[in-house]
Design a protein that fits this description.
Blueprint: H1 2-23, H2 28-49, H3 55-74, H4 91-101, H5 104-107, H6 110-117, H7 125-135, H8 141-148, H9 152-168, H10 177-199, H11 210-224, H12 232-246, H13 271-283, H14 292-305, H15 314-327, H16 331-345, H17 347-355, H18 367-379, H19 383-396, H20 400-411
Length: 415
């Protein structure tokens, strides 16, 4: 299932970026239809014959042939990308023109440009991010709603609004360096959320969705390989992903049970990814920019570098969370800070820090807010209170691994 999801997301993004340029962004829905038909046909055939070795090239060829069919039906390019008007005049020029659009140099930057094109300056950042998660990452409205802790209807409206704005754009694939700089923040946010959904999955059947983490790492790689987008914040975000991905093998044990950081077998962490992540973090230190990704990557680096849980430098981590709250305040950051305070100063101070968090309404459906309260109350010896919090957390658990973990913690509260 995970392999199919990774395959679908990667190939859908690649095909959609290419076909949006071919058809013009005003025909985005047509591009989506062609991509869906291409992938559906491939899955149908390959379910019997097996996936061929060079499937990416075959998919692009299939999409190219479907493009030719569409143009032949319409008999004109004027409804599609304006650049095609002088190229496609007859059947004799149709195929060479479409072949040219699918040459490797033309395809090379399509996904990168599509990412930034989703970040239209007239759209709010939350709409930009939702649009990118939908078009390039293959997320449906329901999945995005879980990430945002919002309603599916509200997210569907964001996506529709974003697509309408894109359809009105005349400069989808003509972005200058200034365009890249102005839109980079929203691109970072989308990739951050994509990785986070993989790392802390809200999916019902998985505690970790490694395919989403890999896709986010692949897309951040496009940024750091492209000069206008290769900023220190891009390197910091890449570092955060690598350092997080390094710990993925320890997030569950051999029985598939969720393991919190203090319980993880650190010998299972990926030392190569840790080294690569620390190198990216060092590279991100150039310049004067200090982003939330610099701070989070530094915190992740401290965790990854500690040989044992008891070696974690909690005082430094609390200081970094204080800084994070000044750079980009949020209830989630405040909750993480409170947990760090509990590790440094004890559970009572941790609970006081949680009580001081504003806007805890956002945690209404988040199981690990209640679980954090339960954990700290249990450490204080208040088993009955802890049991109530863990019961609440268990009722909100999003997948089997979370339910199993929270059930174990609830059992630990027995008198």
């Amino acid at each position: 299932m995970e392999a199919n999801a990774a395959f679908y997301r990667r190939e859908r993004a690649r095909l959609l970026a290419a076909l949006s340029r071919v058809f013009g962004v005003e025909n985005l829905s047509l591009a989506e239809d062609v991509v869906q038909e291409t992938l559906a046909k491939a899955f149908e055939v390959w379910s019997y014959a097996g996936v061929p070795e060079h499937y990416s090239a075959l998919l692009m060829t299939a999409a190219k042939n479907r493009v030719l069919d569409v143009f032949r039906r319409e008999r004109t390019a004027r409804k599609f990308a304006p650049a095609l008007e002088h190229l496609i005049e007859s059947e004799w020029t149709l195929r060479p023109a479409v072949e040219e659009l699918f040459l490797p140099p033309a395809l090379k930057d399509d996904e990168l440009r599509m990412m930034f094109s989703c970040c239209h300056p007239l759209l709010a950042e939350d709409v930009q991010v939702a649009l990118m998660l939908n078009l390039l990452c293959g997320f449906g409205a329901e999945e995005i709603a879980r990430i945002y802790l919002a309603s599916t209807a509200a997210i569907a409206k964001r996506i529709t609004r974003g697509k309408k704005r894109l359809a009105e754009s005349q400069r989808l694939f003509e972005l200058s360096a200034a365009d890249f700089a102005a839109r980079l923040s929203a691109v970072h946010r989308a990739l951050y959320l994509l990785f986070s959904e993989g790392y802390h999955s809200a999916c019902d059947d998985a505690v970790v969705r490694a395919d989403l983490c890999r896709e986010a790492m692949r897309l951040i790689g496009l940024l750091v390989d492209h000069a206008p987008a290769a900023t220190s914040a891009s390197y910091a975000l890449a570092a955060l992903m690598y350092l997080g991905a390094a710990r993925l093998p320890g997030r569950s044990n051999e029985r598939g049970e969720l393991m919190v950081l203090s319980e993880q077998d650190r010998s299972r962490w990926d030392e190569k990814l840790i080294a690569d992540g620390l190198a990216l973090l060092e590279r991100s230190a150039s310049g004067d920019e200090l982003s939330e990704y610099h701070i989070e990557a530094t915190i992740s680096g401290l965790h990854a570098s500690a040989p044992r849980a008891e070696d974690t430098p909690w005082a430094e981590i609390v200081r970094l969370y204080d800084l994070h709250l000044r750079v980009r305040p949020s209830p989630v950051v405040a909750l993480n800070r409170a947990i760090a305070i509990a590790e440094l100063e004890g559970p009572t101070n941790g609970l006081e820090a949680i009580a001081a968090i504003a806007d805890t309404e956002r945690f209404r459906d988040y199981p690990f807010y209640a679980a954090s309260l339960g954990e700290l109350e249990l450490r204080r010896g208040n088993r009955a209170v802890a049991r109530g919090h863990f019961a609440r957390a268990l009722s909100l658990a999003r997948n089997a691994a979370e339910r199993s973990y929270l059930a174990r913690r609830l059992a630990d509260c027995a008198d």
